[in-house]
Design a protein that fits this description.
With about 1000 residues, the protein is mainly α. Among the domains are: about 210 residues, no CATH class; about 300 residues. A hairpin with a 2-residue loop joins strand 5 and strand 6. The protein is elongated, with a radius of gyration of 37 Å. The strands form 4 sheets. It has a 3-stranded antiparallel sheet, with no helix packed on it. A two-stranded antiparallel sheet has the order 1-2. It contains 32 helices and 9 strands. Helix 15 runs antiparallel to helix 16 and helix 17 packs antiparallel against helix 18.
């Protein structure tokens, strides 16, 4: 692990553990990211990355997002920071428009790239074999630390064949030349350290590249693995030589060739076919996932749509094995007590963090701006994932071993992964800089927001510290485009943080004066640190393409923060610390004129770009804003007239109600559950403490009221914790009231009414609960099977369709049962009228029963209409959520047709309690002459268990055999007159 007397090669390192086969990327991440698993019910193979396939439909208006014919991307850092600083001509544009006649002779595919001199390849000759071997070793040890998509022993064999004058394909020769090109961008100084190449070294590097490009243009025949490898190597070289636009177009061609070769699909062994070469299989995996990783970063940095999506592949992650141990015969095992570190650990780790970053970026794009809690929760959730990823790294990559103790290859890998981790943390937390969410959040949520905001600022400082130390050690090279972008992001965050403090858009006391880090986190300290980082970044970017010249953006931001700090120093003698700024008001100055002066300078100061900046400034970092245009303009131009705001014109109903991974589809209302909890609680108290003591008649109603009260109390909990997790899912399930109890309560009341006048009953009263109880059981059985089939991810498509049909059938049967109940009540009323019975004790309970059944009918129709629409819920796919029936997407349907109707049902039984009208005992009957008589009941001698079984089966089983039918009526010795109605 320590330095060796000689320059160690990657061939000296072997794996610590080798496994015969690896799971797919989605499977390997499932344990680390369990949250979205429930979100998809259609493809369990990609559940973990449902967010990856979410297309963002919140498209903002794009009034001025092109420059010299190039699309900037509405969310690119340059375009949005430009919008933030523009104020109706009072502030300059950050984007420097080139004259119309500039670079008109530049190729369209290279427009905006750094200019390079054309090399003379007519007299091209291969370098000496010794130099070629050195270039090959330098490439694998330093130039490509995590993108290890070539097999080093194979490259050496190809090199030997080339120098032995064997027949070698043009793609193979191009692969070797492009390795030379990337390695020649660096050189070894007298101290043995790797440094940036001289101008002659870069010219030689360009010669290798142009020769390889010429060879690839002459390639014929079907595409092969080396065809894709060569073009990916070309993309890497173009990026390191500051030609990102040409690199993007080359990358697009490479993706098409990669799909043609089938690298995005796992190789399947077929009967009778030859066994795949292990080297080829692993190179397929490595190349695809390296391309996937690069695609994610390019899409973010350049503001373009990603070309590769995780839901379109089943390719496995590469095996963690060193190249020298991977042979055409298989994997060579090394017997070692402790094992040795493996170079592929860094490659797989880089792939995993890129997948996390891709999912986080898609989720940021889908989160509605009005749901502040969503952004805090997302930052916390992704922060935990990033921490878990970091904890799984081996010691040499996690920082447990100081990088100075590592060999060059491991040192470079550690540096790349450290920057990737810090960038991911900044990426998921920086949306919280948009405005002060602590005013909208309370208690624990506000503290969580402040913690995440502190993490963002600390991480930005750590990045700038790292970049500054790297510059002191001469390792911030122009070829390190990835490091330059991350430095730009961190410095931008520091400037925006200071400007936000000046405008009172974020909490001012994030960093306590009593903490050990208080001196490092003062505004003055952060500003000076950012200025030093800007200088290093500008020096490294002198040769960069115009698209990657971050200087103008940072100079404009620095001008704003510098003016603010200068004015504040002149008007106040106290040390400026973030925690010194009062939270409840803007920064206090000795007089109002100074405060007004700061505000004017913040929006009127012109920032002049450096003279060396020419050419277009296309957008970078497309996902910085994610639809928060209005907030950003408000951030940088307070009191700006609305005519100049960049507005979002998407329909409110098409986006804002839905929240990704919400168990309710939307972000639940926080007030309505409290209201209904109180109202149902009052109704429950009324049912429990009624004065009629008719528990056997109405006992199910107080039970239902209690259940509804508890259900809405849990829904209030879910209104704050509605994103998918095991705990939240359990709370969501428990909060659903057991609605069949309401219907059973009404059927029981109907039976009691029929018992009161049995000779007018259209159906035997003692069979009412048996009939309707059985029908309700059928309804619930159909509904349970339907939900089980439709929601099970492992169900086939036909089984899911069957589940949907069963659910609809259960609702239709329930509707029919309600209609039958109402029909029984209607027939009973007609029979009573025919018999001349006009008692208030019958009419009022019948009216209330009919009203109650009508309310339940409304709810049933609401549920039926809901299921007739699209209810294929996938809480991890925002596009699928948009296609849901509006009844599911909008919460007010639930509160109107479910909550309100069932509350009214509970209230009317409270006000017109059946105990006011019907006798408490069911054997008290109304005679034709209007008197009440008590019918002597047969003694029930059945065992207790038999009685319980009869009740649980609604009287269908274990029936009580009576000597006389309850529906008969005769005034014999078995009847006694109670009262005269």
């Amino acid at each position: 692990m320590g330095r060796s007397p000689r320059r160690q090669s990657s061939r000296d390192v072997s794996p610590s553990r080798v496994e015969p086969e690896h799971e797919t990327a989605v499977d390997s991440l499932a344990s680390a990211h369990p949250s979205p698993n429930l979100g998809s019910v259609n493809r369990d193979e990609i559940r973990v990355s449902a967010a990856q396939s979410i297309p963002c439909r919140r498209l903002p208006s794009e009034p001025n997002e092109t420059m010299n014919g190039q699309y900037l991307g509405p969310s690119s850092a340059q375009s949005f920071l430009d919008q933030a600083l523009r104020r109706s001509g009072e502030a300059p544009s950050l984007l420097i428009q080139s004259p119309s006649n500039v670079e008109i002779d530049t190729s369209t595919l290279s427009f905006g790239d750094a200019k390079v001199c054309q090399a003379d390849i007519a007299q091209f000759a291969w370098p000496d074999q010794g130099i070629a071997i050195q270039l090959l070793d330098r490439y694998f040890e330093f130039a490509s630390p995590t993108y290890r998509y070539m097999h080093e022993p194979t490259m050496h064999r190809w090199l030997d064949r080339i120098y032995d004058k064997d027949d070698v394909s043009v793609a193979t020769q191009a692969c070797v030349l492009l390795i030379f090109a990337s390695a020649a961008a660096f050189t070894i100084d007298s101290g043995g350290d790797t440094v940036d190449a001289s101008s002659q070294g870069w010219q030689l590097s360009e010669t290798y590249y142009q020769k390889a490009e010429t060879l690839l243009s002459e390639e014929t025949g079907p595409p092969r693995l080396e065809s894709v490898q060569a073009r990916f190597a070309a993309v890497q070289y173009l990026l390191s030589s500051s030609r990102p636009n040409k690199g993007l177009f080359t990358f697009g061609t490479m993706v098409q060739l990669m799909q043609a070769v089938g690298l995005h699909r796992k190789a399947v062994e077929k009967a009778g076919s030859s066994i795949p070469d292990p080297i080829t299989v692993q190179m397929h995996r490595r190349l695809f996932w390296c391309a996937f990783t690069l695609d994610k970063y390019l899409s973010i940095i350049m503001g373009r749509m990603p070309l590769l999506h995780i839901d379109n592949t089943n390719q496995a992650l590469p095996m963690v094995v060193n190249d020298e141990d991977l042979t055409s015969e298989g994997v060579r095992q090394h017997i070692s007590k402790y094992g040795r570190d493996c170079l592929l650990h860094a490659t797989v780790a880089h792939i995993e963090i890129s997948i996390t970053l891709a999912r986080a970026s898609q989720e940021q794009c889908s989160l509605p701006s009005i749901t502040e809690r969503c952004h805090v929760e997302a930052a916390m959730r992704w922060g935990v994932d990033i921490h878990d990823w970091h904890s799984r790294l081996p010691p040499i990559l996690s920082g447990a071993v100081h990088s100075s103790s590592l060999i060059p290859c491991f040192r470079r890998q550690h540096s790349i992964l450290t920057l990737a981790r810090l960038h991911a943390i900044m990426f998921v937390t920086r949306p919280l800089l948009l405005r002060d969410l602590s005013t909208d959040l309370r208690g624990t949520e506000a503290q969580q927001y402040r913690d995440q905001l502190r993490t963002c600022i600390r991480t930005a400082r750590d990045v700038v510290d790292l970049i500054n130390s790297s510059s002191r050690n001469r390792v911030l090279f122009p070829a390190f485009w990835f490091s330059q972008y991350i430095a730009f992001s961190a410095i931008s965050i520091i400037h925006i943080y200071i400007i936000q403090l000046s405008r009172h858009r974020i909490p001012a006391d994030l960093f306590s004066t009593a903490s050990q880090e208080s001196d490092m986190m003062t505004v003055e300290s952060l500003y000076q640190l950012a200025k030093v980082g800007q200088g290093h970044l500008a020096e490294a970017g002198l040769k960069s393409a115009p698209v990657w010249r971050y200087g103008p953006i940072l100079e404009s931001l620095s001008a704003q923060t510098g003016k603010y700090l200068s004015l504040l120093r002149n008007s106040s003698t106290h040390e400026l610390r973030a925690s010194d700024v009062p939270m409840s008001r803007t920064i206090q100055l000795p007089n109002n004129s100074n405060a007004h002066q700061i505000a004017n300078h913040m929006v009127q100061t012109e920032s002049v770009a450096p003279d060396h900046v020419t050419g277009p400034q296309p957008g970078t970092d497309a996902l910085w804003m994610n639809g928060h245009e209005t907030l950003w303009n408000d951030l940088m131009a307070e009191n700006l007239d609305n005519n100049y705001l960049t507005m979002d014109f998407w329909p409110q109903f098409d986006n804002l109600p839905m929240v990704l991974y919400s168990l309710y589809v939307y972000a639940p209302n926080k007030v309505a559950p409290v209201l209904f909890t109180v109202l149902y609680g009052i109704s429950a108290v009324g049912h429990i403490w009624h004065r009629y003591r008719a528990w056997r008649m109405i006992g199910l109603q107080p039970m239902c009221a209690v259940f509804y009260t508890a259900g809405y109390a849990l829904r209030e909990y879910g209104a704050f914790d509605y994103l998918y997790s095991t705990t939240n899912l359990n709370v969501y399930i428990i909060s659903q009231p057991y609605r069949p109890l309401l219907e059973l309560s009404n059927y029981h009341v109907l039976g009691r009414i029929l018992y009161y006048v049995p000779y007018c009953a259209p159906f035997p009263p003692n069979r009412i609960m048996s009939l309707f109880g059985a029908l309700v059981a059928v309804v619930e059985a159909l509904g349970g099977l339907g939900v089980a089939f439709a929601s099970n991810p492992s169900s086939s498509l036909s089984l899911k369709e069957l589940g949907s049909k069963l659910t609809k059938a259960s609702l239709a049967v329930q509707l029919a049962v309600i209609v039958v109940c109402i029909a029984f009540a209607g027939l009973f009323f007609i029979n009573c009228k025919r018999e001349g019975i006009r008692s208030r004790k019958i009419n009022i309970p019948l009216i209330i029963l009919s009203a109650s059944m009508f309310l339940i009918l409304i709810r049933c129709i609401y549920r039926l209409v809901e299921h007739l629409g699209n209810v294929g819920l996938n809480i991890g796919d925002l596009e699928a959520m948009r296609e849901l029936t509006p009844i599911l997407r909008y919460e007010w349907f639930f509160y109107v047709f479910e909550s309100t109707t069932m509350l009214l049902n509970s209230v009317i039984w409270n006000v017109w309690h059946p105990g006011r009208y019907l006798p408490r005992l069911h054997n008290v009957q109304l005679s034709p002459d209007g008197s009440e008589v008590e019918v002597e009941e047969d003694a029930d001698t059945r065992p207790l268990l038999t009685k319980a079984g009869s009740i649980l089966t609604f009287g269908i089983l274990f029936r009580h055999k009576k000597t006389q039918r309850d529906s008969s009526y005769s005034l014999d010795s078995r009847h006694s007159c109670i009262s005269q109605t």
